[in-house]
Amino acid sequence: MSSRYSIAIAGSLVTASFSAVLIFACTATADDQGAMSGKGGKAVDKAPAGVELTTLLPEKISVENGSHKTSITAVVKNGGTKESGRIRLLVAGFDGLVVTNVKGCSEIAEKDLPPGSNSAFGCAVDNLAAGSSKTYAVDATFDTGKAGRICLPVQTSDGKKTYWQQGPVPFGASKPTPNAPATPLLLGTDNTPVGPGGDQLPRTGADDRVLPLGAAGATLIVAGAAGLWVTRRRPRSQR
């Protein structure tokens, strides 16, 4: 084999190896951007022995500045050693975040919404095996001129107990980009919309000034401990 031919083969192998490194690096970056988090989550009522229910939300979402549309992935997970029994997941929007659809779930009527929320869907998870999870595709709109929060309670199918609740946790950006095609928002970050002064949220209601971050979540938790709002409206919200 000539030395020139050997050099050509070696060069090809180096190029192929370098390309593979680039592909793996790009894949890792994409996975990082799609990272999921249980940030803002908390246990409420005690789950049955061997059952460990949690939820996950994406660390980052992107909102189209023209249509205000965004997509959010919601995951409910049983990290325990026993099956969950019949449970359900609620997906509720607050303030500038409005949930418009959750695939495979039923919309909750306005009169039956969780306190403080503007929209919600109920998802019958039924029985979740040990170590398994279920993913839901959430469609929403986000008014980047306001704060926006989402809440994921995991309840018994009759709504009498809430085993886990993530939120209401905010999505937001400290430096909005109104002139760009889309605005990236981070989980657990208060939104700072563009407006007069640049550092103050516009008032959207009488309670906005006095409702601290997480107060709506506390309302839902207290309601959960008392049987939750859904038990009083069982026929409609269980569908």
Task: Using brief descriptors, characterize the structure shown.
239 residues, alpha+beta, 8-stranded antiparallel sheet, 5-stranded antiparallel sheet, 3 helices, disordered N terminus, disordered C terminus
Shape: elongated
Overall number of strands: 13
Nearest-integer average pLDDT: 76
Query: How much helix is in the residues?
Result: 10-25%
Summarize the structure.
Helices cover 19% and strands 37% of the residues. It has helices at 3-33, 215-225, 234-237; strands at residues 36-37, 41-43, 53-58, 60-64, 69-78, 86-95, 97-102, 106-107, 119-127, 133-142, 148-156, 162-172, 182-187.
Which secondary structure elements does this structure contain, and how are they paired or packed?
Layout: H1 3-33, E1 36-37, E2 41-43, E3 53-58, E4 60-64, E5 69-78, E6 86-95, E7 97-102, E8 106-107, E9 119-127, E10 133-142, E11 148-156, E12 162-172, E13 182-187, H2 215-225, H3 234-237
Antiparallel strand pairs: 1-3, 2-12, 3-5, 4-13, 5-10, 6-9, 6-11, 7-10, 8-9, 11-12, 12-13
How would you characterize this protein structure?
With 239 residues, the protein is an alpha+beta fold. The chain is built from three helices and 13 strands; from the N terminus they run αβββββββββββββαα. The strands form two sheets. Strands 2, 4, 6, 8, 9, 11, 12 and 13 form an eight-stranded antiparallel β-sheet that branches. It has a five-stranded antiparallel β-sheet with strand order 1-3-5-10-7, with no helix packed on it. The longest helix is centred in the N-terminal third of the chain and has 31 residues. It is elongated.
